[in-house]
Amino acid sequence: MDSLRSVSLGSRLPRLERQMLWQHVLQVPRAWLIAHDTDALAPAAVASFRHLEDQRLAGTPMAYLLGYREFMGHDFQVSPAVLIPRPETELLVETGLDYLKGRAAPRVLDLGTGSGAIAISLALACPGATVVATDLSYDALSVAQGNASRLGARVEFSHGSWYHALSDHKGFDLIVSNPPYISAGDSHLTQGDVRFEPITALTDGSDGLSALRAIIQGASQWLVPQGALFMEHGWDQAQAVRQLLHQACFEQVASLPDLAGIDRVTGGIYN
Ligand code: GLN
């Protein structure tokens, strides 16, 4: 009869990933695994584990196998229809929250929401806000909608490409976005977890700046005077994004570094 110990002996997975998959299969806390190392396992559980292990060894991201990823202290359900929330994207949320501080009932827009991680985190941290989130993908919107209702966040979802998703013209105090910003030829697209993520959430299929450009150029019609726009971008795009913001008449244009010290979020105030 197989036990955790006997199955683990033959496994090529790193220990932590193995434990996470077992926790998922058996629906137990980590401590249980340690206390029950030599217990006999049900054959169905072993089969489930081996199936997940094979997928992981073939490169499927852990978040897709487990079905969730933690972001801003909340568990977001994810599927291959959405980008897996990244730790560096928490900087975008924190920057948005800083701007919203002291505003009682701000209107917030998240363009290309994916799993909804950004919009939902903002809505939960700022219950007085009206948050609208868009996506071009119906599948992504359904993941985001599920996350919002499970986490108890009030977010209004809307389908379409960037501002085309919006119908009324009420001004937003804050626009945030983590758009596809990897350029079409970037070798990162063929490496690691990224290979399994939706390509349209990663690259614009062009120079990496076209989505950022569209978001910046359209923002003036959707922001209230003194409203803010903040975007996540690639490691080498901060200067280009600042320039685009200046050209579009934004002020107080600035970039902020992520935990690795790389300028990752750039934004400004529309005057
Ligand atoms: N930061 C992500 C990555 O490096 C890309 C996210 C995006 O394109 N918006 O894989």
Could you characterize what this model shows?
It is a single chain. The chain is α/β, with parallel strands linked by helices and 271 residues long. It folds into two domains: 4-58; 72-270, 3-Layer(aba) Sandwich (Rossmann fold), CATH 3.40.50. It is built from eleven helices and nine strands. The chain has helices at residues 4-9, 15-26, 30-35, 43-57, 62-66, 90-100, 117-125, 138-151, 199-202, 210-219, 238-247; strands at 68-71, 74-77, 107-111, 130-135, 155-159, 172-177, 223-232, 250-257, 263-270. A seven-stranded mixed beta sheet has the order 5-4-3-6-7-9-8, sandwiched between helices. A hairpin with a 2-residue loop joins strand 1 (68-71) and strand 2. The model has no long low-confidence stretch (mean pLDDT 97). Bound molecules: glutamine. Glutamine (GLN) is lined by residues 86, 178-182, 194, 202.
Number of helices: 11
Rg value: 21 Å
Helix-strand makeup class: alpha/beta
What is the CATH topology classification name of the largest domain? Rossmann fold
In what range is the share of β-strand residues? 15-25%
| CATH classification, class level of the largest domain | Alpha Beta
> Roughly how many Å apart are the termini?
70 Å
